[in-house]
Amino acid sequence: MKSVLGKLIQQEFGRECYEIYAEKLEQKESMDIFCDIYEKLCSKSPAHLNLALKNLLDSVQVSIRISRNFLYITIGYLMALVVLFLLGTASVILYPAVAAVSVCYGYKWVEFMRNRYCDRDVRIVLIYKIALFHLLEENCLQKEGGKV
User: Fold this and answer.
1) CA–CA distance, 148 with 144 (Å, rounded to integer)
2) Which pTM does this prediction carry?
Protein backbone atom coordinates (compact mmCIF):
# COMPACT_ATOMS: atom_id res chain seq x y z
CA MET A 1 0.00 0.00 0.00
CA LYS A 2 1.46 3.35 -1.09
CA SER A 3 0.70 6.73 0.36
CA VAL A 4 -1.66 9.01 -1.52
CA LEU A 5 1.23 11.31 -2.39
CA GLY A 6 3.37 8.41 -3.62
CA LYS A 7 0.51 7.29 -5.85
CA LEU A 8 0.27 10.81 -7.27
CA ILE A 9 3.95 10.87 -8.22
CA GLN A 10 3.71 7.40 -9.74
CA GLN A 11 0.62 8.44 -11.70
CA GLU A 12 2.29 11.58 -13.04
CA PHE A 13 5.77 10.22 -13.81
CA GLY A 14 5.63 6.43 -13.59
CA ARG A 15 6.90 3.88 -11.13
CA GLU A 16 10.43 3.89 -12.54
CA CYS A 17 10.83 7.64 -12.06
CA TYR A 18 9.39 7.38 -8.56
CA GLU A 19 12.03 4.79 -7.65
CA ILE A 20 14.77 6.95 -9.18
CA TYR A 21 13.54 9.99 -7.25
CA ALA A 22 13.51 7.98 -4.02
CA GLU A 23 17.12 6.90 -4.61
CA LYS A 24 18.18 10.46 -5.40
CA LEU A 25 16.57 11.68 -2.19
CA GLU A 26 18.63 9.20 -0.19
CA GLN A 27 21.75 10.48 -1.96
CA LYS A 28 20.71 14.11 -1.21
CA GLU A 29 20.37 14.99 -4.91
CA SER A 30 17.16 17.01 -4.72
CA MET A 31 18.21 19.42 -7.46
CA ASP A 32 18.46 16.52 -9.92
CA ILE A 33 14.86 15.59 -9.08
CA PHE A 34 13.74 19.19 -9.58
CA CYS A 35 15.50 19.45 -12.95
CA ASP A 36 14.03 16.16 -14.16
CA ILE A 37 10.49 17.06 -13.07
CA TYR A 38 10.85 20.56 -14.51
CA GLU A 39 11.98 19.20 -17.88
CA LYS A 40 9.08 16.78 -18.01
CA LEU A 41 6.57 19.48 -17.10
CA CYS A 42 7.99 21.97 -19.63
CA SER A 43 6.68 19.90 -22.50
CA LYS A 44 3.15 19.87 -21.08
CA SER A 45 0.42 22.28 -22.11
CA PRO A 46 -0.92 24.92 -19.71
CA ALA A 47 -4.19 22.98 -19.50
CA HIS A 48 -2.28 19.87 -18.43
CA LEU A 49 -0.34 21.89 -15.84
CA ASN A 50 -3.61 23.22 -14.41
CA LEU A 51 -4.97 19.66 -14.24
CA ALA A 52 -1.75 18.52 -12.54
CA LEU A 53 -2.17 21.29 -9.97
CA LYS A 54 -5.77 20.21 -9.34
CA ASN A 55 -4.63 16.59 -8.89
CA LEU A 56 -1.89 17.72 -6.51
CA LEU A 57 -4.31 19.72 -4.39
CA ASP A 58 -6.83 16.85 -4.35
CA SER A 59 -4.16 14.37 -3.26
CA VAL A 60 -2.97 16.64 -0.47
CA GLN A 61 -6.56 17.07 0.72
CA VAL A 62 -7.09 13.29 0.76
CA SER A 63 -3.87 12.83 2.71
CA ILE A 64 -4.94 15.42 5.28
CA ARG A 65 -8.43 13.93 5.49
CA ILE A 66 -6.98 10.49 6.25
CA SER A 67 -4.97 11.94 9.12
CA ARG A 68 -7.85 13.96 10.52
CA ASN A 69 -10.40 11.15 10.32
CA PHE A 70 -8.20 8.61 12.05
CA LEU A 71 -9.14 9.89 15.51
CA TYR A 72 -12.84 9.39 14.71
CA ILE A 73 -12.12 5.95 13.27
CA THR A 74 -10.28 4.97 16.46
CA ILE A 75 -13.15 6.21 18.63
CA GLY A 76 -15.62 4.32 16.45
CA TYR A 77 -13.54 1.17 16.70
CA LEU A 78 -13.38 1.36 20.49
CA MET A 79 -17.10 2.08 20.74
CA ALA A 80 -17.87 -0.86 18.46
CA LEU A 81 -15.81 -3.14 20.69
CA VAL A 82 -17.56 -1.86 23.81
CA VAL A 83 -20.99 -2.36 22.24
CA LEU A 84 -20.11 -5.85 21.05
CA PHE A 85 -18.95 -6.88 24.51
CA LEU A 86 -21.82 -5.21 26.33
CA LEU A 87 -24.48 -6.85 24.15
CA GLY A 88 -23.63 -10.19 25.67
CA THR A 89 -23.91 -12.03 22.37
CA ALA A 90 -22.82 -15.62 21.96
CA SER A 91 -19.14 -16.20 21.37
CA VAL A 92 -19.98 -17.71 17.97
CA ILE A 93 -21.08 -14.24 16.86
CA LEU A 94 -18.89 -12.11 19.13
CA TYR A 95 -15.46 -13.39 18.05
CA PRO A 96 -16.02 -13.11 14.28
CA ALA A 97 -17.55 -9.64 14.77
CA VAL A 98 -14.57 -8.49 16.85
CA ALA A 99 -12.22 -9.99 14.28
CA ALA A 100 -14.01 -8.23 11.40
CA VAL A 101 -14.00 -4.87 13.17
CA SER A 102 -10.33 -5.34 14.09
CA VAL A 103 -9.36 -6.21 10.51
CA CYS A 104 -11.12 -3.07 9.24
CA TYR A 105 -9.42 -0.96 11.90
CA GLY A 106 -6.07 -2.57 11.07
CA TYR A 107 -6.48 -1.58 7.43
CA LYS A 108 -7.28 2.02 8.39
CA TRP A 109 -4.33 2.06 10.80
CA VAL A 110 -1.93 0.92 8.06
CA GLU A 111 -3.41 3.51 5.69
CA PHE A 112 -2.96 6.21 8.34
CA MET A 113 0.64 5.20 9.06
CA ARG A 114 1.53 5.11 5.36
CA ASN A 115 0.13 8.58 4.79
CA ARG A 116 1.25 10.13 8.05
CA TYR A 117 4.87 9.02 7.93
CA CYS A 118 5.69 9.13 4.22
CA ASP A 119 8.55 11.60 4.51
CA ARG A 120 10.09 10.53 1.21
CA ASP A 121 6.83 11.04 -0.69
CA VAL A 122 6.24 14.42 0.94
CA ARG A 123 9.69 15.63 -0.09
CA ILE A 124 9.19 14.47 -3.69
CA VAL A 125 5.76 16.12 -3.82
CA LEU A 126 7.21 19.37 -2.47
CA ILE A 127 9.81 19.38 -5.25
CA TYR A 128 7.03 18.60 -7.75
CA LYS A 129 4.94 21.45 -6.34
CA ILE A 130 7.79 23.94 -6.67
CA ALA A 131 8.44 22.95 -10.29
CA LEU A 132 4.73 23.04 -11.11
CA PHE A 133 4.19 26.44 -9.48
CA HIS A 134 7.25 27.84 -11.24
CA LEU A 135 5.96 26.74 -14.64
CA LEU A 136 2.44 27.98 -13.94
CA GLU A 137 3.87 31.35 -12.90
CA GLU A 138 5.97 31.52 -16.08
CA ASN A 139 2.91 30.73 -18.20
CA CYS A 140 0.94 33.43 -16.40
CA LEU A 141 3.69 35.99 -16.99
CA GLN A 142 3.95 35.04 -20.67
CA LYS A 143 0.22 35.59 -21.10
CA GLU A 144 0.53 39.05 -19.54
CA GLY A 145 3.33 39.96 -21.90
CA GLY A 146 6.16 39.59 -19.44
CA LYS A 147 5.02 42.37 -17.13
CA VAL A 148 5.92 41.87 -13.51
Assistant:
1) 9
2) 0.80
